[in-house]
Each structure stands twice: as C-alpha cells, then as structure tokens.
Amino acid sequence: MAKSPFNRIHSHLLIGVALVLCALFLLARQEIGLAQNPAQTTVTYPSTDAIFANPERGFYHHTETHSNAYSPLILSDLQNYRQNENISLILRIFYLDDFVADPISQDYLDAMAADFAILRQAGLKAVVRVAYTNQLTFAPNTDWPPIPPYGDASKAQMLAHIDQLAPILQANADVISVVQAGLIGIWGEWYYTDHFVADPADPSTVSDDFYAERGDVLAALLAALPGRMAQLRTPLFKQKIYGTTSGVGGALLPANAFDGSDRARTGHHNDCFLASDTDFGTYSDVAEDKAFLAGETKYLPMGGETCATNPPRSQCDTALAELARFHWSYLNADYHPDVLTGWESGGCMDAVKKKLGYRFALVKGNYPGSAEVGGAIDIRIDLRNEGWAAPFNSRPVELVLRQQGTGTLHRLPLTADPRLWLADDGGSHTISQTLSLPQEVVPGSYDLFLALPDADPILAARPEYAIRLANGGVWQPESGLNDLLHTLTVTAAPDFRLYLPGLRR
Questions:
Q1: Domain extent at residue 123
Q2: Measured between alpha carbons, how far is 192 from 131 in angstroms, rounded to an integer?
C-alpha cells in the first residue's frame, strides 16, 4: 500500500528533527569540552648543572689494537668508563700492521667482531679508525720529521681491505658512532704516506690526481658503512676531494645537510687542537679554514684531541671559544694530559664535560588535561640546546603515554629531528604537533614522557643509548624516558548512536 502524503511528510519531519538534534548535540558537546578545558596546562622545567653520560658525545678514552698482538676490549673497563666517569664513547683504532700486502686474516676479523659485541654489552659506542702503522723512523740524530717508508698500503690493497671490513662494519653500525677516514699514512691521518703522493719525502705536495685517489678510498669507506658519517683530518682534504672553496661560502649548505650525499656525510676531526696557530698544520689558511669549519660542523661530526701545550691558546678562554665555534662533539680524555690539567686548574673542565656535543634541557611544555580515545591532542614543548653541537646521527623523538597502574606504554612518533636542534643563536627549539590518540589507548590516567631512543632497533629499548635531558627529576634510568611531569586523562569517545532515532541499541 502506498504511503499517504501525510505519512511522507511525517517521515521527512522526523529525519529533519533528528538532524537538528544531532547538530545541537555536537555543538553542545564542543561547548562543554571548551568550558571544561579552556586552556592547556603549562609545565615549567628547571635545568640542572649535573654532569652525566649521553650517547655519542663527551670525552672518550683512546683504545687501539694491532694485528701482531691483538689487545681485545675488556668489558669491566668499558663499564667503569660509563658508571664512574660518565663516558659513553671510545676511540677504537684497528691497526692492520701485518696485512699491508695481504688480506686481513679471519682471526683478526673475528676479534674485531668480538670487540663490537663487548662494546654493545657495555652500553658504549665507538669512533672507529682503521690504519696500518703508528711506527716512526727518523734520520740519524733527528727526532722529527719521520722519514719513509712509512708503512701504509697501496690504494688497491686498501680497497680490498674495505671490502673485507664492510660486513663487520655494517653488522655493528649500531655501536659505531662515526668512522674516521684513516687508512692512509701514519696513524691513518693522511699525511706521511708511501702511496698517495708523488714523493713520500715531501708529503705536503699532493697533486689533484692523488687527491682523487684519496677520494676513491673515502668513497669506498662511506659505501661500506651506509648509515654513518666519516671524518677527515683537515679541512683542505675535504675541499680538495669535493672541489669546494674554503671560507664560509664553501661550507655545506643547510639545504644539503643530511641529504645522503658523500659530501653531506663527511665531517672533520682535529688531532692537534690548540697546539699552534695552525693546530700543527690542520689549517692551511687559518681564517678561511676556520670559517669553513664553523659552517660545516653545524651538521657534521667534529671531534679529536689536543696534542701539545701552547699557552695562552691552549688555555680555557680560547679552548671554550673554539669548542663552541666548531661544534665539538667529542674529545680525548687521555691526551694531551698537560692541556687537560690546565683546563682543570683554569676552572673550565666541568663546562667542557657538560657542553661537548648536545645537551638538551626542557624549558616548558603545554599539554591538554584530558582527551578522548581517537581524539586529537595538541602539545608544545620548548627546549634548549645548552651544549656545543647537535646530534649528527638520526634519532626518533616520541611522546610516550604510560598508563598509571598497569604501566602500559603507547609511543606516539613526533616529527621533530634532533639533528636540527642546533646550539647556535641561543639553541632554542620547539616541538609543536597535533597527535591522534590511537583506538587501543583505553580510558584512564596516563603520565606523559619524552623519549629520544637510539634509531637502531637493536638498541632502541636500551636506556644507555637513549638521550637524557638536562633537567632535575625527569630522567627515568630504568626505561630511558624523560618525565614531562604531566598526567593526561583519557576518556571514552561518546557513542553517537545513542542520540540518533532508529540507531539505539
């Protein structure tokens, strides 16, 4: 039987009323929400002067081993560095003394792998360098300079060795902070070499062709460890290999930082910091190379060691200024002892310990007091980099919700990149993001945390490899989380079917 006009009109009226009621409900619900939470809660955080370990930064201990007498890493030593000295980093030099003309033995490769396993067990990382010799020969009645032959390998042998090393480097990239170019010359510092210069007795004269050959070795090393950066001993080496000028105009541009190119993966190390006006030959054109280095190291790793006293340049005032200008991330705790003792007596050693690399401190945060399951939350976190550099390896940032009572964790990825939290210009940075609460978050009270875990899944759950913030009362050593000192109340989302005619249960 067909419906009468009255029934059709009645049906349309019911639908219209239902739609109006639904709209009124949604409007009322929005107004109630705004009335209950007119503004977010602001939490302020005091910073701390405490000295503590953080991954991939700070003072390091020098370790080395030789093929003719392999000296393995010792777990208890590494654990002592971290627990009693707040040191999370070592330099590990692998000397290939016996393999200058031969393949690396399997025993040596196995010993390298065992070292990395010990390093991982201890919760540390390494700056890695491979070299062939540290033995010096001098002319009669002289003590400098060394004379050839120096003892490094040919280019062909180096490339073959890099192929052998690649599987071990890649398998242990999680505990390799950065790799120094090494290989060429005494100590792997690219100067006193038998093969990459026309006349080994004149190591300062290097043709473009020989720089190209050195560049081939660097490119092979970068290809062998795709997830990490390399470091060169002087700015001139990088300028020659990549065809850049010195000065600020030749430095890596911000737009190219972390773009994956070899140039954007090649940083710097200075192993005679403050030793002379040129840092014993580190700088070719002092003013221009310093300007180049200051720009480059905003986005690239910088580290090394002191090697001689040179007052007043090697004393606190200049040391602090140049460590900041060149964004130093790490420094040798073992050498040169007289320089380091001078920093102790000069009163700047604690500042160096705190400021090497990054040092992130929360300033304030804005968080909602409540949110619905599946709903959106707006957060804003202001922080400051109180160190001298930003992290140079990628690292995730997460807002973590931990349910009170059960301890259940929910990790919400943030889009922030700590590599861009530079120390320059006051080092102020902001995380501002709207997040959606996943449906699996059940109603309840949740404490909020900020997490900066290691990017490698092998280490992501290890608190020793997470970044600790420089604030009192926020670090959770058992979990590697930083407490944001705020509780979020999560409520169930309303069931709209209860308010629509014909959809009630």
A1: 58-228
A2: 12
